[in-house]
Amino acid sequence: MLGQQLLLTPLSLQMSQELWQPSPTTTSLIPKARGRRAQCAMYVLLALCAAVLYLAGEPLVSTARSLTHHFVTVQIGVLLKGTCYLAEEIFHLQSRHHSSFWRALSACFPLRWHGPMLLICGSAYVALLDGDGQPLSLHLGLACLCHLLILALGLSKPSAVEMSEMSESSKQNVAHGLAWSYYIGYLKIVLPRVKKSMEEFSRANPNVLAYRETWKLHILVPLSCDIYDDLEKADSNIQYVTDLTETTLTRAGTKKRVYKHSLYAIRDEDNKLWHCAVEYATPLQSLYAMSQDECAAFSREDRLEQAKLFYRTLEEILKGSKECAGTFRLIAYEKTGEAETHFLSRYILWHLRQQHLEEYALYERNQVHNPSMSLSSTELNLQISESDLPLPLRSDCF
Question: Is the peptide bond before 24 cis (omega within 30 degrees of 0)?
Fold first, then answer.
């Protein structure tokens, strides 16, 4: 009987969640960091090419001559490309390279590897050249012509995937800067104080914040970057209640700078009110403004990609922050044009119920696996109603 009663609350929560599920999930919305599959594919193709050349049965000298010829051609292409860039950089020596020609030269030519490689391959090519009736200058001239045509036609530019990978790996995206600025300048300051503010509010209003596991700052991350200044206008089921206790600090020359969070009441399908602190991730307003400004040259696709990267970066930062642990809940969503009127409130409610359900599940596991919390037969009798109907469970049992 007791076990059935303990399962009533999480079961009812689970049934209520089945009425509406957010789709698609955050996992399918936010891309993960790229792995090393491209590099593994390169090694596989390299081994495959080596096997094909070996099975072809060509003479070793002829194969080595052709191989060194291709290596020399590639290195010549790198030198020509660097020369073209150097023609521009010599006019920016003072502003970009501290008046150092060597710095400009090193920036245009990857001398560490390509220089020695060019010398080795060039020497090997000359040594293996057996005189095919064409002078060496013709071979070099044709190689230069081919690469200059490739540069002129723009065929050597990196693909969109390469550019995305380079910017992500170097952490120089707009999203990385916005996420770190948001964390350092705001979240790192306010999140450690969130639970204290909610405890103070709960003592003054004991019946409002009923579920301690939802005492977090719920940060909305709309991937469309469409942010409402007034949450009540975004969804009529979201109503402003009050502001939590303010935090006043002196920051960057501003005396008594105020940080505060607003408490909202979310109305569910049964007309029940769930209270939580909710706000948008404000840096997304910058992404949206950039996509509306012609000077930024920021397309809608760029904005969506940067919004996803912003969420992933912020999540990684907050997960590694000990002082912010257990004080936040990131809520990413993608609202389509056909979304229902109360999409936002139902999405927030789904997250609140998830937190509440996880807490109940943890509580039940502790009951099962902790022998010291097992009830005696006398205590069990106190939990059983004398009537045939089960007693209602209290929500403040932990």
Answer: yes
H-helix segments, the chain: 2-18, 26-29, 37-56, 60-89, 93-97, 101-108, 111-128, 136-152, 160-169, 174-182, 188-190, 194-204, 231-234, 283-292, 300-319, 343-369, 377-383
Q: Beta strand pairing status for 328-333 and 217-222?
A: parallel
CA atoms lying within 13 Å on the CB side of residue 10 = 16
Mean per-residue pLDDT over the chain, rounded: 77
| β-pairing verdict for 217-222 and 238-243 | unpaired
Could you tell me which of 63, 38, 42 has the C-alpha nearest to residue 53?
63
d(CA 6, CA 363): 10
C-alpha pair distances (Å), 238 with each of 101, 270, 323, 353: 62, 14, 29, 16
- pLDDT for residue 73: 79
- The span from the CA of 10 to the CA of 36, in Å, is 41
Q: Which residues are CB-contacts of 135 (< 8 A; sequence separation ≥ 6)?
A: none
Q: What angle do CA 15, 18, 19 make, to 5 degrees?
A: 100
Q: How far apart are CA 356 and CA 272, in angstroms?
A: 15
Classify residue 198 by burial, with Cβ atoms within 10 Å: 0-12, 13-18, 19+. Answer: buried
Segment (H or E) for 280:
strand 273-280
Residue 383, pLDDT score: 40
d(CA 281, CA 183): 10
Is the entire prediction scored with pTM above 0.70?
A: no
259-302 per-position pLDDT tens digit: 999 999 999 888 888 889 999 999 999 999 888 888 877 788 88
Tens-place pLDDT, residues 124-175: 666 666 555 566 677 778 778 888 888 888 877 777 777 777 666 665 678 8
What the block records as the tokens of 60 is: 């070793």
**Rounded distance between C-alpha atoms, residue 75 and residue 124, angstroms:** 14
Which residues lie below 8 Å from residue 178, measured CB to CB, with a gap of 6+? 283, 286, 287, 310
Measured between alpha carbons, how far is residue 311 from residues 116, 160, 165, 328, 382 in Å?
43, 21, 17, 13, 49
